[in-house]
Amino acid sequence: MKPIxxxxxxxxxxxxGTFSVLLRNRxxxxxxxxxxxxxxxxxxxxxxxxxxxxxxxxxxxxxxxxVVNDPAIDIVVELIGGTGVAxxxxxxxxxxxxxxxxxxxxxxxxxxxxxxxxxxxxGVMVAFEAAVAGGVPIIKSLxxxxxxxxxxxxxxxxxxTSNFILSKMRETGASFAQVLEQAKALxxxxxxxxxxxxxxxxxxxxxxxxxxxxxxxxxxxxxxTEGISKLTREDIRFAEELGYRxxxxxxxxxxxxxIELRVHPTLIPKERLIANVEGVMNAIVVKxxxxxxxxxxxxxxxxxxxxxxxIGDLIDVARTLTADPEHRVPHLAFQPDQLSDIALLxxxxxxxxxxxxxxxLDQPGVLADITRILADLGISIGAMVQKEPTEGETSVNxxxxxxxxxxxxxxxxxxxxxxxxxVTGKVTRIRLEELDS
Length: 437
Description:
Blueprint: E1 4-9, H1 13-24, H2 26-33, E2 37-43, H3 47-54, E3 59-61, H4 64-68, E4 75-78, H5 85-95, E5 99-102, H6 105-122, E6 126-127, H7 138-145, E7 151-157, H8 160-172, H9 176-185, H10 194-197, H11 200-214, E8 224-225, H12 233-241, E9 244-255, E10 258-269, E11 281-288, E12 292-299, H13 303-319, E13 351-361, H14 366-376, E14 381-386, E15 395-402, E16 405-406, H15 407-418, E17 428-432
């Protein structure tokens, strides 16, 4: 049987890993797919690097559009990244009747609805396992393995850079700035790490998982995003003393009021498995009504782990090339005409628990004033700790853990507390999730 011919757009870290694994395991992959899968053409601006990696095993070009327009190419693998030329190339490939495999979470989070609609109309597939959590097969699990379930919530550590920083801050007591420089030196953080440390990368990935889990269109613009750059080592230490760890979590939940879609630092109990995921590793917990909690763990980035996911998609596409398009697994797990229009909740309407740290003057009556504000807004305190003042200091730290309450009520409480003359500085607020059954 004629081999499937693949055009690879971009042979950087992930592209190189994909090419290497496909070449190394080609016999095994052919046995799984039922026919050979061969990268015949590679497009990259750095043609010298591309030639060095491919070693004569593929044709090299610096013109990506020549690849998507080549009638001999069956599948286009887009590993360029970004939402500019990558979108043009993907849309052109679809227009030309080619299947697409991509690791581009930003492209799909912003333009996935348009891309999937075009692919459905043309009868081609767009596969994107590598776009979320690297080599962890979470997309396939949500779309197929858990298809019998009504998904209740998905919670994940889906950015390795941020998880590395938080792990090192906890282990060493170093500041955010110090650990960020270490992450850059080790190659875990980009020169401009904004997408990672401010939660944008995680929000792209969460948008995809939420759409698949709940059968809704992609709505990245509605995601609440808060990063880790303002976290202090003091709060990480206090959380640890209270039995919690702080992780940057992507959280999406189905509630009676609508779907939550949020990324932010979160306290979780130390005994939860996901609280013990350290370094650059990723982990996702999915709660289904039938299966209960399931956890997926593994390398969330890297050349060969992500390349593994790309090739998994290539095999899936190869297996279903001759299938009736109507009988393929839908892009977002649900049939395109069965997507839900359920509303996404604004952050003000989210109901969760909170860690609040206040610096107050060490004098009588302070606690009474603060607890009165919380009580008036219906906020119940679950635990409270007052730290001893250090020598020469006139203010002390008070840490409160609240029971679940609406975000907008906590916002009002913080504004009123900060207006008190006895409160020095801003109130630190970190959300808290128990993640129990």
